[in-house]
Protein: Glucose-6-phosphate isomerase
Amino acid sequence: MSTLRSKDAWQALERHYESMRKRRLRDLFARDADRAKHFSAEAAGWRLDYSKHRVSHATMQHLFALARECKLEARRDAMFAGDKVNNTEHRAALHIALRAPAGSVIECDGENVVPGVHATLDRMAVFADAVRNGDLIGFSGKRIRNIVNIGIGGSDLGPVMAYEALRHYSDRTLRMRFVSNVDHTDFAEAVRDLEPEETLFIVASKTFTTLETMTNAHTARDWLLAAAGSKQAVKKHFVALSTNREAVRKFGIPAMHTFGFEDWVGGRYSMDSAIGLSTMIAIGPRAFGEMLDGFHAMDEHFRNAPLEENLPAIMGLLSVWYTDFFGAETVAVLPYEQYLKRFPAYLQQLTMESNGKRVTRGGKAVDVATGPVFWGEPGTNGQHSFYQLIHQGTRLIPCDFIAFGQSLNPSGRHHDLLLANVIAQAEALAFGKTLKEVRDEGVPASLAPHKVFEGNRPSSLLTAQRLTPATLGALVALYEHSVFVQAAIWDINPFDQWGVELGKVLAKKVAEEIESPRKRLAHDASTNHAIRWYRKARAQ
Ligand code: F6P
Structure:
């Protein structure tokens, strides 16, 4: 059993929860005219207003006490110091070193890793500039114009999210595509209008063994060779981003087209490593550097700010508060910024692959709920789809609203309306509309209950002036560290992902059975039936 429930601060929170669970945001705001000021914090270009959460000053004190009793600060310092905080894989988790300024010292196994990080960044910059300047030439002598990133999970979601988020800053003469699914439709649609002679494939895979990525990479190689005729073309048209240099070499990608990183970079924490090459090609080395600066600014804030003013700590603790005390099962992430349309998908891996764990770091079953489900869509689209449930359903769904003061594509009233909506949604969720207010509007008694908004539904409002490479970097780092804070409270390892293994192993076995129709099947009746059905279907 986890000892979390036995901690003094946890027990104090349990008692405190009894006094908070029925408290209304209406009352909390009525008692404190400066509540928005008292429950907000700023860092790295972001402001977090958490006043619309069901917390009092006492709640926050209890949560900070819990963090201290769980030794959050010591754990954070251990991560920054390069300790092997990923205990089940005996690895450090040093993504913070990926954005450390040149000249800083961060040691792993007694070696300063920062010079290596910057050497790779410099090589990436030379390569990215060559593509952007038109100096990278394909097998026919034409310049490379199409960049296809092949990867999955952290080797896809970060690059796609960053590309979409920073498209405004990207070179529009380049066509960027992303292929992840082993479903061939993904590859076929990505390349159907591309010329092989103008196409560069970036094979992004930390391990360079992932089934989906390697299947797509081989398909890409065949597609290229069908046009080029000679294997020599692979050298010009393929780049690898990987820690597995030997497998890359066997694939035929030369060392000069290989950009490495170390095993202390987890897949879902890798968008600012060599895995970000597509981002750097799209927006250029300088803007990529600004993004890293944004990450670093949030890292420094997380490392140095007292918990009481620390954005990742506050966000992580609020998540624990709702997950474990209010029984909330999900968090909705709602960016009011079209360029962040892939941000919720990116966060799903970051949060759920990290904190979807049921045993502690020591291997004991946890006795509280861990990682909530993250989901979301950009505003205002979600308002016309699932917001009904958030406003009037029976579940409590804390929301993270994200908004910017200025649009990157200003026009007429668009941005005013967008911002009016996000502000109004947070207000409606928090304060709702009582039966009396509904009746006072003259609504007939039979309809009145349908028009009541209970309110008291919590949300954060995260705001920054503009979406820039730097604000994006800081935002991602904010969520990375918030995930870490939650994991520290739950005493789980956010850096491994053993839960993806069983499905991978079974899929390999089933693939062999499908492709060898005479093989005896010894699964359960349902699995056997599905395999037999597909054996027939594929043969027709
Ligand atoms: O299957 C999960 C996972 O291991 C992720 O953690 C990772 O981001 C993804 O697969 C891709 O792995 P790789 O970069 O090694 O291809």
